Structures
1.
Amino acid sequence: MATVPPVNDPEQAPQEALPITRLLSTMVFLLGLALFLGLPFVFSVGSVVFLPLVSAIILTIVLSPLADRLIRVGLPNVIASALSLLAAIVAVVLAILVIVQPAYDMVDQAPRLIARIGEQFTTLRGSFGWIADIDRQLARITGNASGAQVIVAGPSVLEQVAVATPSVLIEIFLTLLMTYFMIEARIRMKRRLLLDRHSFGASLRAARVMRDVQERVASYIITVAQINFGVGVLVALGAWGLGLTAPVMWGGLAMALNFLPYIGPLTMVGLLTLVGLGTADTFLLGLIPPLLFLGLHAVEANVVTPALLGARFTVNPVMILLSISYFSWIWGVVGALLSVPILLTLTALVEHLGKPNIVGFLFGEPLFDGDGRVDDTIDEPVANTT
């Protein structure tokens, strides 16, 4: 008896390929999770190498447009690269001088400010004496007794600074050196990245990724720097109007801390609260500086920054806080400052290379929908054929 040939079912092949896709997605997901958890230990142990490298990459992205403008003026690439890096160094040094020197002088006034704050809270606590009476009654009923407290002496601040200074100087030197060579070699790197591809589509995608990453990160940092400069000027004028010591320092501090989303403004509010309570005559007058800064920050964060940056730079606040905590865990304060530029760089890369479907993956879908490729067509106006 003749056998009937099997009928080709078009739905059979996708059904057979689904377990393989699921297995590959699982492997990619587990590998990414292991990489996410393992990188902090590698980066923190090798911070002398990785921190200057990442910092140099971010600085190269930011300073490359300035070097390109200097080249268009007529300067050689070597001189343009050196001048762009020198401009960044001068700006950082001036900011440090504006902030650090008055802050160092204010440290001598710290005991007096702390004593004044204690007097303010003592006066305030006198208005709520009934709360203290209730607390004493509860302590008497529960029988809580104060136990002995052991304080272990640690290294002084000067000892910690003396130990950390050589490593910091080495990292700064390596960062500046790598930044200069990256800026100077940016044209050759672009040509090699574009011309060494095997297809025109790959070269086009590489060009788009490079352009989008540089435009996004550089535009974000430059725009945010302009906004923070305006915030610093307003804070300096406000500090001068309120009679605070070193108003230029407060403006520079507000500008620097505003580069760190959420955490920076909160730190500024805390500092203004301490100084306000330590210098004002009454408790309510001491709260005026932090309250005014909160109002300024509310306008800047909810009106000015969204209007200037637009939706293109809108990032989930949870992702920002996760990035800050992740990179501050690895590299401390410097990692927190680099967290947002790194997040923007990774976001631009993900948008071009493919966004993982993490939520769908947990419910049985593939981790990546499609191949994550962008359109290979060139952005050119289409001629009217009618």
2.
Amino acid sequence: MHSVISPRARMQMRRACVAAVSIFALVVVQLPHTVAADATKTPAEVKNATAKTQGEMKPYTEVIANGDVTFEMVPIPGGRFLMGSPDTEADRKEDEGPQHEVEIEPFWMGKCEVTWNEYEIWMFSLDIQRRELNKVAASELEKQADAVTRPTKPYTDMTFGMGKEGFPAICMTQLAAKTYCKWLSAKTGRYYRLPTEAEWEYAARAGSKTAYHFGDDPAQLGEYAWYFDNSEDKYHKVGVKKPNPWGLYDMHGNVAEWTLDQYIPDFYKQFAGKSSKNPWAIPTKLYPQATRGGSWDGDPSGLRSSARVGSNRDWKQQDPQLPQSIWYFTDALFLGFRVVRPLHEPSEAEKTKIWNAGADE
């Protein structure tokens, strides 16, 4: 049974404690058609990371040079699926319909959510510091990565005492998550970005048509997800629970995940009775932007594959700066992201369009 204190009240209590110790004083398009990668930028060599067709795609382990960190990418086959939830699904919301057919091109997706181990290399320029300490010259790829903007120093420990080694990075804005992807792309020579809402739901479902990838019964959530009932008021290390059928961990719960899209409540209405390919709602304003998956502080209804949540100005409530930081959400302890890599890369101009879409936070 839940405690008498509601999730919202518990979060407010947590925020109050943090504040006490802190030093804080409609556009829709299809994703661009993909073309061959730029031959002048030779990617860092990684086993199984190269494929020309879906049939050649394999799982691979990406390496972040001079960061001593790796992460795993899982191939997601292209296909069609029904996006959204049926009228009969329990706890369904209006923004999840109408259901409509969507075609998705193949891509790789992070096996787990981006961890602090990965994120802080960019966040604190740890790779640059390591090169300087070891007197190692920057490679051509690293020179490009060094030119990518990095965030200002955070105001406090952004883990808020919940753990760092192997835990998901949190509290970043959509801009920060997109800029990390831009840096990671320069660093590795392989193109990374956030998933669209459609790609995220397609991967989360892994061929299923039920509320969760394992079925409709939320009583089974504990086997696959960290959420309100079992999280003990904090996030957990990635990859601990069972994965979905496509080998992805924590698609339900742990931390909610950024997508590329503007959150538009009635976005699906234009697709009623139609089929779309790689849809993407380009961000044109700061709020709201779309997140998926639910979190450690969420109830089962918010962890369903079709559940959608838009970002909110309240996520920066405790940031006293004027203007407020473009990099951090001081009150989004439930929010992180994972990366995707399409099989075929778009042009350099199209990459820039995707990374830079929308206003700064």
3.
Amino acid sequence: MQHLRLKTLAASLLALSISATATLAAEVTMNFGFGAPEESIYGRFATLFKTKVEEYTDGSVEVKLRCCNQISSEDEAFKAMQLGTVDGFVITSNNVSPHWDLMDVTVLPYMFQDTAHLERVVDGPVGDFMKQDLQAKTSVHLLTFGPALYRDFYNSKRPVNTLADMEGLKIRTPKNEVMLATFEALGANPVPLAWSETPTALQTGTVDGGDNGASFIKDLKFFEFEPHLVILEHFVAMIPLFASDHFMNRLTDEQREQVIRAAADAGAEFREQVQTETEDVRKWLVEEGGMAITYPDKTEFIVATQSVRDEFAEKRGPEFQELVTKIEAAAE
């Protein structure tokens, strides 16, 4: 009888041990932020990532979504991840450049010939190099480049059909050297503003316009006070998904692999969704949002911004120039 009681006790202790281990495994939480509303394109991307992480890890990693700058602003999130105070964030490429200047190769105007060219870059050896170099220099993990969003231009003053129509427009620009130089080359007056200040500046007329992906223009309701939509596709804005080294080090090797796979799969799946939606959203902005749309000939815009591409390739040095060359080679 004593032997039976000992066996029962041992079995109970084993069951408790297994239960405790499972409980501990389930307690890994990722607080994941983004600057836009939950229903925005950032929110949809983050939700897809959350779903895949929790599926692939069988719930041992929980992703808690924090929209609308709850845990950080997009301008401050990269630094917060370096400090380990934020676990993960979606950050537009141009807001990464102040922390890792090679990201500006993706910000250069008219750098990518088309979406297929961009995909060959980010999904190939160049993209792998960029992920590795960023992590080595900043400690932050670039999990996926995410979907490509062509930035559409909008303003409250006039339709834009030629380069001359850009002259003198006060344009909200992210605090990014390449983007500031690009709008200067186009004849506009760029005004650098943090994203958190942008909606108010547009609505009050502090600036005349700006540029974002079509979905953002819709989600943030910019069509309500910016009547002119211009399809320039001058920048391709990627929305990479990042994680802090502090968070990644809390994971087991298996969990880390599952999180990386979840990010890659979410990025590929969401990229396909976005590609099919862009024209639909532009159509909605015109037919439902009331914007007037123009499609200028891009030739003179491309010529006007060539100096920006040349200047920054020269200014940033050999490593930057080599990356530009690799991206251009991927177009062939």
4.
Amino acid sequence: MNSTHSKIIAKIEKFEQLCHVLEFHKHNKSMLIPILQQVQEIYKYLPEDVLNFIATSLDIPSAKVFGVATFYTHFTLKPKGKYIIKVCNGTACHVKDSLPILDKMRTVLALKEKQNTTEDMMFSIETVSCLGACGLAPVVVVNEQVYSCMSPEKAEKLLESIIRNECEVKQ
């Protein structure tokens, strides 16, 4: 099976999942936010064509769907990487030097100034104002896995470990 065929199958599977989400919520307009949450779990972001499909399926204006998707910071309209890294910069983490951790991770991932996702779509990095783990500061979360008492050196080793594991999986 070639990569084009695999990509088509993946798109079909995601579209089927989208339809299941809409069916699960019985195409109920009042369930827009839970629908968007589940759809974002499937796609890792909210593609424009998917938002338009949701609007049509729920019989509501696209502007309303886009309005909800852009109002809440939880939602994103931009594709994210396979590994979503959240670096806490809340008070406790900031005081314990979370910004050098962020800088080190951006350097290791070769991210340019306004770039948050690597070109290979492997990593996305974002700062958050609080992860609710102040006693473990500074904290980094990678795909819901919490890493406490981080330092720039530990962050670099963490990224190297993820990259190494990815290379092993591909072989």
